[in-house]
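Obj.: predict assembly geometry.
Materials: sequence records (below).
Method: joint structure prediction, all chains together.
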Amino acid sequence: MRTRRTAAAIAAFATAAVLVAGCSDSGGKGSEEKPDEGGKGGKVSGPKLTIAMVTHSGKGDAFWDIVQKGAQAAADKDNVEFLYASDDQAQQQAQHVQSYIDKKVDGIIVTLAKPEAMKDVLAKAKAAGIPVVTINSGGQFSKEYGALNHIGQDESVAGEAVGAELGKTNRKKALCVIHEQGNVSLEDRCAGVKKAFGGATENINVPGTDMPQTQSQIAAKLQATDDIDAIVTLNAGIAEAAIKAKADSGSKAEVSTFDLNEAVTEQMKNKAITFAVDQQPYLQGYLAVDGLWLYKTNLNVIGGGQQVLTGPAIVTEKDVPQLEKLAKNGTR
Amino acid sequence: MSTATVDERLLRTSVWKKLLSRPELGAVMGAVAVFVFFSFAADSFLRMSSLSTVLYAASTLGIMAVPVALLMIGGEFDLSAGVLVTSSALASSMFSYQMTANVWVGVFVSLLVTLGIGIFNGFMLTRTQLPSFIVTLGTFLMLTGLNLGLTKLISGTVQTKSIADMEGFSSAQTVFASEISIGGVNFKITILWWLALVALATWILLRTRWGNWIFAVGGNGDAARAVGVPVTKTRIGLYMAVAFGAWISGQHLLFSFARVQSGEGVGNELIYIVAAVIGGCLITGGYGSAIGSAFGALIFGMVSKGIVFAEWNADWYKFFLGAMLLLATLLNHWVRKRAEATK
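Observations (raw structure tokens):
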């Protein structure tokens, strides 16, 4: 009986807290602007196609969310039914592709983060006469595996762009933060930074699923090596931890990051992030679906079968006014 | 034998021997060894600002290691503890944002939700009699899915919206994620939370009836029940304690960053258990201490940051981390063996 009374007391207290404390006059959902329905043009007529996308994304990755939004926008316009599956285990990813082949979809979009695992299943897609477009990473394997074309960003090139940008502001020593030890594309980015940057570059591994630990890890590094004057993070979430770590350690280092989102545009406005490298994930999804539609209806191939690069685009504080709202809607 | 007339339970033991028989002794020695080692291995380790970083890292683990240690003394595990921290932060953030409510309302709703999950764990365990490994593994997977699914459903993306501009944020930040300046060096408030929890848990374990129940339940549940210990209530209470720790950690996470990534926290449950075990808890239950878990967390914090201060090659980080933890635990084990031998 006592526990029940306690529970009732807690519930009553919580209700009272809601009533007494009431509402917030600032922020929250109440201050949200209605997103305008821009970008949704008229639909094309013609037969309804089915296009499937299979990526190597882990669950809950903000980046792939934007890719899907781009793909869905193109699908809506092109009268396409868009299907999506993902798995960070290569074998599972290949099985998803196989099931879409069995389903006889009209086109397949895949990522080649683990190229060897996708080779066989892409040959099967070709044998079944289903056109394939590859996106994001692994562009050098695209043609070999029989894809129409590749739409994405070369990670090394993107890293080099960051290195060159750091050189422009006379940085001396950069810290590249790897949030997933052993991830090839992250290592490629840091290697690219090192290659194009005039100064020294050091890497550090942080536990990317634990923000406080990531923050203290970067702070420790900044305290140990106090001549670091540039921090490069490889996704938007880690950039937040780097900004905190910089304050904790009293470092003067500039923070710049890969990927763009609402938080990053805010931090650029606050001058906490100097620049971001955008690889336009929305465009990767959009062009892949649109490209397959063009191929199916008119036998066009975007880029004439060559790799189409969607990045790296360097975004700075100057670009924030235009991008802010788009980032808030989750399309940039 | 002249002493044969005195019952051995009434024998006076020296303070030294009493100290030697404490579960946390090995962990204290391990912590001292790690501290001395990095004082020599890393130039920047001994600066006050560096120690503040180490203490911060130790405190965010330690806050969870304390209730996890109590739970392990009570003979159970909680594999959902890592993601529960994220769930707690998400609940608080999304409730405040969606209801446009003062963030303190979200903080209290989150407390209820988190404690509710703790009760669920305890209830499932005691009702089904299944091993806690299985029950909490189920909760772990379900929470991982819920964190992502609900966040995406409610916020539209995989991270929550910023609540930094909402009412109550700054006062909540003061409580959960502020800094205290001592002699020009800033220390995080999580260190205070950590110390307070260690003190509270130690008092409960050593000075209250509940402490006796916890040891009894972990030592032998059936025997404890037979002598009238409320076994079911004790177990559910322990899971609620873990949930309470997750609530504090979750609010710290939220008020440090103002937004929460839904995929965080996976894997931390094992680190909490590691801290408790280094601190002298037995995996079989019935033995351990809250102070020990604090030293376990401190060892983990010192090693993980010490490697960075020592500027060892980053590619080998995990190897060094594992090796140092193993060495610290071996020392701990060795000290305890010696202590038992001298009894």
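Conclusions so far: The longest strand of chain A covers residues 49-55.
To do: check interface contacts against the pulldown list.
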